[in-house]
Amino acid sequence: MTDVIESLEIDRWSGPFSAELQHKALAALEAGRVVFCPRLAFAVKDEEAKLLSSDFATGKAKNISLDPAKGQVSGTAASSHEEHLRAMMERFARSSNQLVTDLFPGYLEGIELARTSYRPVEIVGRQSSPRKDDRLLHVDAFPSRPTRGRRILRVFSNINPTGKARIWHVGEPFEDFARKYVGAVRRPFPLEPSLLAALGITKGKRSAYDQIMLGLHDKGKLDPRYQKEAPQTEFGFPPDTTWLCFTDQVLHAAISGQFALEQTFHVDIAAMARPEQSPLRVLERITGQALV
Ligand SMILES: O=C(O)CCC(=O)C(=O)O
Ligand SMILES: [Fe+2]
Question: In sequence order, what are the residues at sequence separation of 6 or more whose Cβ sits closer than 8 angstroms to the Cβ of residue 258?
Answer without folding.
Answer: 54, 57, 119, 120, 121, 122, 123, 160, 164
